[in-house]
Amino acid sequence: MPAPRTAVADPTLTRPDWTRGSPRDPARLWLDKNENWDPELNRVVAEVMRALPAEAYCTYPESAQLYAKLAAWAGVEPGNLMLAAGSDGVIRSVFEAYVEPGDTVIHTVPTFAMYSVYSRMYGARVVGIEYERGSDGPVLAIDRLLTAIRTEGPKLVCLPNPDSPTGTVVPPEQLESIIAAAGEAGALMLVDEAYHPFHPDSVVPAIARYPHLVVCRSTGKAWGMAGIRIGYGVASPEVAKILHKVRPMYEVGAVAVHAFEAMLDHADAMRASVARLEAGKALFLAEMETLGFKVLKGAGNFCHVAFGAHAAAIHARLDGRVMYRKDFAEPCLAGYSRFSAATPELFAPVIALIRAAIQGNRP
What is its EC number (predicted)? Predict the structure, then answer.
């Protein structure tokens, strides 16, 4: 039997067991994966899927119309785009096209798990810039990141904005300085905007000034299409051509192409959903602060709450009813629980359960 690549053969590089799953119990509210469970947008997506033509299921994908329509929506040209199986697919294409064994990749810690996985898969040396724990949540030391870019000789710099799981954003002027520094160092700069437009600021317009910049986006958050698995990257025409060289025969399936093309006609419904989820998030956090808990508001479709002395009682009360991230091993988020954003109506019973847990936990 032939040996796999050395980096892939490394026994410490493991992935979750693909033969085991966690079926979605309809009795629970699933707020653990930053999906969009807004019922109104869910209905729009379902109607779009029911209306797909037969050719969406029985033909290979033809993506040119989607490229044109998406380009108009994003304010770029079709030659600036690439489709992929989620923003994750764009990220992997960037690694496959640009990162060779021994290259240096800089990314934040903690961040989207696949940056670390792809770095190891492609034999890169990782320079991790760790978030520090601040009084108001995780803090990214921009000076340390800039110093690393200027001294470590990176091939690729990865920065989600907002980042996950921290929910932090880099202010526009600082983000531009990071992009510029990556260019001066001869590195590709990948800005992950998976949560756009929950955080409406975007560096897509900066691609005209920085040809080494790549932006990736997801449809699994704001658009409510996590199960369809389609995302896209935006880059200069030169970089986009390179990324297309490493894509599969077809970037995504015909169902995904037809669905996203149709959903672009419902951009107003997507924006309305973002507004509802932001309202729910604001309500939830305000209630948590009223109860005396420290919160992190973040900029994605999620938020954090530190339940402190009531944590065990609240986790017990929510068990079997709400799925969420209970705690983090990373020091910058230790003691915080993370909840995906939901509408005010969906958050109401969660708030009630937390209030009941506190009442029962008081001496």
Answer: 2.6.1.-
